[in-house]
Queue: 4 jobs
Job 1
Amino acid sequence: MENLLINGFGSSGGGTYQTVELNGKGTINGDIDCERFSCSGTGTVNGDVKADELRISGHAKLNGAIAASKVRIDGSAKVDGDVEAGKLKILGYAGISGTVKGEEAIVRGKTSIGKDCEVEHFSAEGYFTIDGLLNAEQIEIKVHGGESKVKEIGCRRIVCTAHQSKLFSFLTPLISPPRLSAELIEGDQIELANTTAKVVRGNSVIIGENCDIGLIEYKEDIRVAETAKVGEKRKI
């Protein structure tokens, strides 16, 4: 099986390859099916990418969908389509206009998702926005660097805490506190801090410091910190 390698300025059509490497400024016109796709330069793909492993350490513009076992973004990527990946790891920046589906999504940089994100495990220590539903079995969020936003969250268990960093602690009065914002957070076990939400609904609910919740609906038990602001609590 052939490899496709673009080191300088160049372009190619789509096709089936073993390895695709974009190290310079390359453009691929058509769908790509390969075992390994990497972009360490500036790359554009006008089509869908199907790969076992996809890695972007440069700057990539993908005008199509991604289907891969592993996706890792260390640089920046804009994806004008859906992403389906067994494991998605974002250490740089990713702008995804469609949906994200897979087993695991890890956000350590910055990402925006235009539609829903449906994974088994979602972990974030960076900044993210999700315009649709975040649906996962397990959700772990450490908010920092401003406000992360998601329209709705549905899960079995969610833990949201504030990222503790002493490096810029002297700037705390000058910057906005880290925060997760959502219209609805629904799950079996919910533990929140630094969160703003219109409605929180769950079996067991713990509301920690720096929370602002409009309505809490709970089935089993609830704990609310003294510093938290809650409009109404309702047992269902």
Note: Residues 57-235 form one domain.
Job 2
Amino acid sequence: MSIDLTGITLTYPDGDSRLTALDEVTLHVPKGRLTAVVGPSGSGKSSLLAVAATLITPDHGTVRIDGTGTAGLSRRDLAELRRRTIGIVFQQPNLLPSLTAAEQLQVMAHLDGRRPARSRTRALELLDAVGLADQAHRRPHELSGGQRQRVNIARALMNDPTVLLIDEPTSALDHERGAAVIDLITGLTHDRSTATILVTHDRTHLAAADETVEMRDGRALARAAGEGPAAGQEPVVT
């Protein structure tokens, strides 16, 4: 189980020309491993995550999830692939205000056609896994920012994905709560053997990653977790 991006190039229209968002990016994340992606605004981090999530089709290159290539798949097939194999944690939790923490997760199971009783059990198990067993009955306004983000992560795990894609999960949290969320993501990655890509702006969390990829001008430079800027290091793909 893994996610593989090979030779990914992505461009956007920019007047009479095209702007390159990703330039021949290659990335391999095996199961049970956490890869952090960092870089300045506009470096290609969000575009990389969108391509990995099959939300955007690249101009060139291949995306393979658990060995399945996404090229040529219909929109319906891509949606099915996302629902069954990819968990996405957006920067903002975007929880439904009228639903309890458990119900936020059960909605995901309902979309996948699972039985209510089984989905309730699964939701409670995941809330327990993220430390919110005693908050299952609470609605978003009754939860702290860190707790809402934990519900967000649990929701992404509801359909037992093999790939976990996480976008800036600590941007709205203080350092202590942010560190707790990163610890949670690290533990879930290893315990549930997900192939995890974490986009983050906070370099204090990089020591928790198995690998760090620095994005610059749409290109990817690999470096070991916890190291400083990859000055002068060669791109993964040139």
Note: Residues 175-192 form the longest helix (18 residues).
Job 3
Amino acid sequence: MKVAQKLWPWQLLLAVILIVMAAGIYGSVKRIDYEWRWYRVPQYFLYKAEDPIKVPDDGTVEEVATAGGTAKITVNLVDGNRQVFEVDATTVRVDQGEELFIGDTVGYVTTWSLGPLLTGLVTTLWISAAASVLGLAIGLIAGLMKISRNYTVSMLAAIYVEIIRGTPLLVQIFIAYFFIGTVFNLDRNVAGIGALALFAGAYVAEIVRAGIQSIPKGQMEAARSLGMSLPQAMTEIILPQALKRILPPLSGQFISLIKDSSLVSVIAITDLTKSGREIITSTFATFEIWLVVAAMYLIVTSLLSQFVFYLERRLAISD
């Protein structure tokens, strides 16, 4: 009860600040001469696609039978065959006794399909997942190389990390697609995933290096004294302990990679960002679409953050 009494003033202050911010945003929006079209947004998540049903040859409609929401259209073709087409009852385009010619549409079959926003989100997720897996492998190898006692190996890793971390991701994507992709005839998806993986790998390498070096040297010495080889000691003793320490920054890097993946839209990969731009081009609903796109990124990263918190709690319990 005492905790609640101490906490409520700060909760009230937070509520006041949020209300003031909301009022400020609302006032700014009202000053803009803009017609909001939120009613147009849902169709870009899911929509009803109509697939036309066409006759394969000339013929005559023998019967149109409707049962519930489905209509069965029986057509006598000129070759003597009788064919039945099933379409949605509300989309029938012919009448009984009507003559048809090859390619004529008798009706439509409607199905729910993913809109461009959800399709773009799926593309964003699988590109980010593929780049994260590759980035983790690259970063683990580069991180181990950086702590190697071999000068050449450690310097190669250091050069890779410095080049990648010292140049913008957008420039790296352009180089991967227009230069490396052209030389090796790479698909745009491969070039985009490769650029993201190399970018993430450089940051993962530093995280892995710091995590390994944070483990007391006595752990490695004890493992070697028990007869373990260096690879055994690293995989069975050092890395499991380092993993618990590097999980928060590592997960943060991969969550950031989801947002960074929006840059692959510049090489014509239809991810969530490019889908939003294409919708805006055809609808001019600029504010609505960008707000929805931002909310979709926020929802995905928030869910992943909660999952990471869950893993951290589980690992803490295992200690």
Note: The two ends are 32 Å apart (CA to CA).
Job 4
Amino acid sequence: MLEAIIVLAILAVVFGLLLGFAAVRLKVEGDPVVDQIDNILPQTQCGQCTYPGCRPYAEAIAKGEADINQCPPGGEVVIQQLADLLGVDPKPLNEEHGEHGEKTVVVIDENECIGCTLCIQACPVDAILGAPKQMHTVIESECTGCDLCIEPCPVDCIHIVPVPETPQTWKWPAPPQPLEKPPREAGGST
């Protein structure tokens, strides 16, 4: 009897450890469908889809709680990619969420900025740099063009600038560009 209890206890511990490892692994790796959907979305974190960011929208799509046509920044290209991934028919962009337009970033007129920090608080991707009562600036390579910083600005010093479409900027976020280094000559000193 005691041997049976010991065997059951050992099995319970092993089973508990396996479940624990599985839970940790799932938590670290995430849901592969959600990850694939999130990778297709433009990562603007603009909230136009009614979700607080691209990841929550991806989770809602995966659960069947949201349609694939709620992302104005992604437009028809993203809708088609989501339809292909999920094996559903594409739908036209739901105009209740906005219209698809050209890619943009924002710039701050540094001569007019009063350093209120309201734009910093509104930016979902931390693309604005500055300190209270100091001039702010936009890190253009990080800006997703969501324009959420424009409305809270009390002095209207934030302006929208179109991003020229290049192979590097066709999808948000723009991939980081490697620094070009001249080739090293063999045996030469620097």
Note: Confidence is low (pLDDT under 50) at residues 24-28, 172-185.
